[in-house]
Amino acid sequence: MTSPDTSPAPANRTPDDWQARANEAARAVTSRFGRRLLFLPGTHLGSVSWPSNRLQNLFRPWHYWWQAHYVDCLVDAGRRELGNGATPAARFNGPGNPSAGKLASRLVTGIRLRNAFTFVNNYYDDMAWLGLATLRLQDLAEETRKPGRRRNARVRKTLTLQFDSASTEDLGGGTFWSKKRDFKNTPATAPIALYYARTGHQAKAQRLVDWLNAVLFDQAQGLYRDGARLNAAGEITLENTIYTYNQGPVLGALLELGGEENLSRAATVIRAVDTHLTVPAPAVPPGSSPGVRTSILRCDGTGDGGLFTGILCRYLALAALDARLPEGTRTTAAELVSATAEAFWAGRRTSGGPIFSVHAAQPASATYPVGAAVELSTQLQAWMVLEAAATLGPGAISGAAPAAP
């Protein structure tokens, strides 16, 4: 793991402002979507949509990877609680409620029970996201001097075996996307590379990154394509779609591994994101801070796409705090995060706690009018973006490399 940068970063708001906003998002998501699994004590899960009831949730599709990102968001809140003293008064939801870390631990328990008493899933990318989230949860437990449950070690052992089995030499390397083992892609390979890098298996991580660079990196755009498969003739065919969220974990793996080549590629990806994956910002509301960017990150709709921009912001914020990158690159990363966060916040619906838009460039009143069902993925996305912005205080483009978010 890299060491933390204690200096602040450029943003339109002070750290306290962004922390308060992230706390509002955290309270909104946990109160609207969070509930016990079948009333079982010591469990927590996120409902797929709001409003809904427990019976409806049991018969809806099981979105394992949404829950994994819910864990990550709670760890973000837990790290802020830690930075504010880790006291009951520092809790995002008030002193009478469980800490964010405890709620995240209950959520991991809920995931296992809801997933038929196992953490193994048919999709390796799903498991990769949970692997990354539980690593961060373990780090949080250690930093708060509350030893993580032995379960966290079992999760790591179980999922590492899954990742090892999926990362083969078929198609020249990379990681399979699913148990069908017919498609290797960035959504699985990149977070698993990051997982390996964070668990001390740098050689494995670098091999996966090298495969991504050789097979799926689009030189013209400076971004990573979706995936590759073998056709009936035994030839590699590419899925050329460029997704926002794929760039995030690749960026994280490049930074975690370090070295001149990886850091140069990370800077290339950030510039390309700014060029190709942004849209015009909404009109600047009265009273906003001066110097707001004219572009923000694009968003990718509802369902799984409702998470995409949040994931990218998580790793752009990490890049913004990494002194090994050029100052201009770090500034770009920080501005992309803070401007997108500002747009989500400005466009929120405020009645009864914030409801955030599907698209940062549109107000929530347009994408989630009163009476519409609200999807968990989209609210986690906005929460993630606000948490990313909360890590960036004034002047964070100087200093050492940061701790992994």
The CATH architecture assignment turns out to be: Alpha/alpha barrel
Q: Main sheet, how many strands, which sense, barrel?
A: 4 strands, antiparallel
Q: What is the molecular shape?
A: globular
* End-to-end gap: 10 Å
- DSSP strand content: 5-15%
Residue windows where pLDDT falls under 50 for at least 5 positions: 1-12, 395-403
Instruction: Please count the helical segments.
Output: 14
CATH domain fold name: Glycosyltransferase
Whole-angstrom Rg: 20 Å
Number of strands: 10
Structural class: alpha+beta
Order of helices and strands: HEEEHHHHHEHHEEEHHEEHHHEH
How many structural domains can be distinguished in the coordinates? 1
Overall residue-averaged pLDDT value: 90
Helix content: 40-55%
Keywords:
single chain, Glycosyltransferase, two-stranded antiparallel ribbon, 14 helices, 51% helix, disordered C terminus
